[in-house]
Amino acid sequence: MSNRFLLRDALAEFPPYVPGKPPTTAPGLKPYKLSSNENHLAPLPGVVDAIAEAGQVPANYPDPKSTKLVADLAAHLDVDASEIVPGAGASEILSALTNITLEAGTSVVYPWPSFEMYPILASARGAQKRPVPLLEDGRHDFQGLVAAIDDTTRLILLCSPNNPTGPSVSTVELDGFMAEVPAEVIVVLDEAYFEFATDAEVVDGMAAYRKFPNLVLARTFSKAHGLAGLRVGFGVADPTIATALRQVIAPFSVTSAAQVAAVESLSRNDEVLVRAKEVAATRDQFEQDLSDAGLTVSDSQGNYVWVSLGDEDAQAFEEACAAQAVAIRRLSGGVRISVGPDEALDRVREVATAFVESRTA
Ligand SMILES: Cc1ncc(COP(=O)(O)O)c(C=O)c1O
Fold first, then answer.
1. 223, 234, 331: residue to mutate for ligand 1 pocket, most atoms within 8 A of CB
2. What residues does each domain of the chain span?
3. In 10 A of CB 10, how many CB atoms?
4. Can the peptide bond before residue 19 be classed as cis, meaning omega within 30 degrees of 0?
5. Pocket test residue of 39, 115, 159, 300 for ligand 1, highest count of atoms within 8 A of CB
6. Beta bridge pairs of residue 218
7. CA 20 → CA 125, 274, 353, distances in Å?
8. Average pLDDT by consecutive 10-residue portion of the chain (361 residues)?
9. For residue 308, what pLDDT is reported?
10. pLDDT of amino acid 2
11. Ligand 1 centre distance from Cα of residue 192 (Å)
12. Fold for domain 17-37+270-360?
């Protein structure tokens, strides 16, 4: 059967993207999904109305240039519209970035573990993957990243805050790193979760972007803005890079509903940031509680908490949460738990206490 169609052999080697599991049901318990880093808060007022209005004319294609969204983002970030590239989520921007830089014979350097799409996109372009293990505390190993660069390297991906481990990249780290990277190699700072970061040292992506012409930002409305289901994100890039990105992004990929919802949400950005900081406060307390319970947590700056566990324990922890109708994300080396409603986090707290007791009994 495998010879039936002329598919690329390389497909067999693609790492799979494993989406966050839906919660299992348990009698009498409301199910919660804490496995995809979604925003659990209700949509901002105005956003749902904007989506409903855009849905009135589904027969028409969206504005292919997302003109209003691009203009508003440019004004918000104080850049030229030519530097903003909208896409169907940050995922599409990341995909486009690999598309304009990678091919067979080139390499891409990125921290690992990090966002699961990085190796998938590298495989899709036929480039050599150079994952650089994170440091013990879940931070990027910048020395290791520098050492992995050679003259085949066309793209470097950084993730701040890092998904799944949580720490953000600091200004000092990024400045030092950029000084070591050849100026013609594109470095991506994936800031999908930057609104949740509270660490005083966290790099300000826009300030860094102004300093380094080869730095591209990938941002999204999926997380702090709570619009994951609509698929809208954007890149901020030097106009030359931005033009190349537009060449490979599918026309009309950002739907009308996504465009207006993002415009509306951006107009309420102050509220978005207040809510993100509330999520961050819940995250810090939750992290502290899990640590007090005896688990090893990292310093997360995203809307999730990372618990380091051996693979067997990670599976047992995931199963214990599932028995309480809470889906969390098990990955190599631990579990990632998205910040969700109090009731869901309380169940995980109880699981954590019982889990540690069972291990020390
Ligand atoms: C680090 C990181 N980057 C990018 C994305 C993609 O987000 P989206 O395509 O929903 O904008 C995600 C999604 O989980 C992520 O965790």
1. 223
2. 17-37+270-360, 47-267
3. 12
4. no
5. 115
6. 190, 235
7. 25, 26, 24
8. 80 86 89 96 91 92 97 98 98 98 98 97 96 97 98 98 98 98 98 98 98 98 97 98 97 96 97 97 98 97 97 96 96 96 98 94 75
9. 97
10. 55
11. 6
12. Aspartate Aminotransferase, domain 1 (3.90.1150)
Task: For 96-243, list the strands marked E by DSSP.
Answer: 107-112, 128-133, 153-159, 186-190, 215-220, 233-236
Instruction: Tell me the fold of 47-267.
Output: Aspartate Aminotransferase; domain 2 (3.40.640)
Residue 1: predicted pLDDT:
47
What is the pLDDT, as a whole number, of residue 139? Answer: 97
Q: Is 54 in the pocket of ligand 1 (CB under 6 A)?
A: no
- Integer Cα distance of 352 and 359 in angstroms: 11
- Candidates 108, 125, 86; CA nearest to 253 is 86
CA 208/CA 110 separation, integer angstroms: 18
Residues in the chain: 361
Helix axes 47-54, 256-267, angle to 10 degrees: 160
User: Which residue's CA lies nearest to atom 12 of ligand 1?
Assistant: 192
Cβ burial, residue 105 (10 Å; 0-12/13-18/19+): exposed
Q: Is 114 in the pocket of ligand 1 (CB under 6 A)?
A: no
Q: Is 95 a pocket residue for ligand 1 (Cβ < 6 Å)?
A: no
Cis peptide before 161 (omega within 30 of 0): yes
